[in-house]
Structure formats: structure tokens, C-alpha cells
Amino acid sequence: MAGFDKLSASQWRGEVGEQSSAYFHAQIPRVSAQVAQLNATATRSLATDTAKILQTFTYKGGFASQAEAQAWLKGFNNNPQVTAQLIEKAQLLPEPQRTQWLTRLSAPAYVARMTRKQALAVNINLSQGQLFNSMLNNRNGTFGRIAEDGYRRGFFDISRTAGLAFKFDRLPQQKINAILNGAIPQKYLWYFTTEWASNNQAVMLEGILTGKSAGNIAKGLRDTIPGQEYRSYRYVRTYVTSTTSVADTLAMEQAGLSEYEFYATMDDKTCELCGPLDGQRFTLDEEMEGENSPPIHYNCRCRKVPIIPGIESANQKRIARDADGNTIYVSRSMKYGDYQKKILGLL
Length: 347
Ligand SMILES: [Zn+2]
What we know:
Oligomer: single chain
Bound molecules: zinc ion
Largest sheet: 3 strands, antiparallel
Structural class: mainly alpha
């Protein structure tokens, strides 16, 4: 992982975007640690609730057989206590989730159809909603000035490389909020919390089916916390890739630039989607995140580089990794396909 960071930190030398790229990649470990903290808090709280969740479903110290556990999971007695507990939990959610869940939980048809397994899923989904909201509430603290810094640094990178003093306007708070609250960051946040919820649900179901005690299931949940740190890292990397890309677009617009080049990372981990995009040029008019603008996928490490007319030097180098993982510099004009053939020795 450390190797990745170093490579991503400075993808190119003497190229527009070099400094801001280094800055953003330096933010990832710090921000990931904060996200991992929120994630751990939510997991511990779910672990603390485990006994209560299982008790409510009349789980008492394990099953005699797997068949018995499965039979138990299928049946649901429409226990008013279960519904009451879920409603109590839903009350804690902020709007609009609160109303959505309360409506759903109090619909007789829904409660009647709900199996025990689904009831467990509802509990976990409500916890996911709580994690989602705690992350939204902490977003300004965790991601802080990334959007604004992205714009400012992107803009100064362009000015410095072009050797021109473009007129710089601060990004209005409204635009910063729009970047932070945009549909795309929300989508990645949802993806992150969904992964969290399905992992926890799997741990709980496995525990129930193998007759583990509530205490052991809770321990199993807490044991996943260290492994979740890398998931936090991936989420933050995706968020930073997305935010810097939007900020770069705003900086390009401010500087009057209209074309960018897609940059993938020159190592053996770059995927089949991003590799072929490397070196392709697009205009801001045709830019589409996920199609020709990063992130192309969750955990994408790509970046776009503004094209400044008249500032393309044949001597420019870009950073890469050789087949043994050592840092090397290759010609700026080398594209990922050539890199795979010439440096990694692939066909
Ligand atoms: Zn990518």
C-alpha cells in the first residue's frame, strides 16, 4: 500500500498537476484514519447491540442443529416486541430515513411478510443508516477543505505551468458544498456503508447458523475492525479522486482551458477499464465521470491532466513502476498499452 501512495503522490515530473496530486495523496492516510474511526464506532455499537438483537428474536444460547437454526430463521411470529424494538431504533434516524423506515415498519403487510432473517437485515440496515448519517455529519470535519484546496491548487498548477497569471476567483461556498454533497460522493458513501452492512450481516448469520453465543458473535464483529481499515482507505481514495476531478474541472474552466488528458497509474495494478483510457484526450463538454473522467470505478487511482496549448514538452517524463516494482521515469508520450509491453513485458 505504501508503494501505491508513493507512486500516486507524484505521477509526473514538471507536469501540470504535480503538486496538487502530491498534496491530495498525502491527505488520504489522515482522512482514512478518521473514516476508519467512525466505521469502528458503528461496528462496536452493533456488537454491543448483538445480544439485544438476538434476544429479541428468541435466540437462546444456540441451536441443536443447523436444520433447527435454519427453521428458526424462516419463521417469524410477527412478534410485536420485535417491531417495537425496530421502531425504537428507527426513531433515532434523521429524516428522510426516519419517516421512510417508520412507514415501512408500521405497514401491517410488511411486518406480516417479514421473516426472522429479514428482521435481522432490517436491524443491520438501520445501523447502516446510522453510519451513513454519522459520516455525512462528519464530512466537513473529515474531508474539510479538500474541495476548495483542489480547486485552488489545480488552478495554481495551471498558472505555474503556463507561466501566466490567470485571474483567480475564490470558489463560492455554495460550489464547495455542491462538490461535497454531490450525488456521486453520496453514491460512494452508500457503497461503503453497504459493504459494511453486508459484512456484518454475514458475520451475524454465520454465528447464528453455527450456534455461537451472542458474546462470540459480538467478538466476531469487533474482530473485523482492523480489516475494515483498508476498506476505509479505498473509500477515501475514491472520494478524493472524485473531488479532485470535479475541482480540476472548475479550475480549468476558470483558466479558460477546455481539454484534458486521461492519466492512469503506470503500474501492474491498473485495471482493464482505465488502462485503455490512458493518454486519451477529451473536452470538458464531453466529460462524463465514470466514462472518460475519473473515478472510472470504485477505488480508481486515475487523474486528468489539463492540456495547456503550447506547453507540451518532449522532455517531460512521467513516473512509473518497473516489473520489479521500482520507481522509474518514462517518456511523457508513453501510454499505458506501450508501458505494459515495453516495461512490464506483457503481450
Ligand atoms: Zn482508474
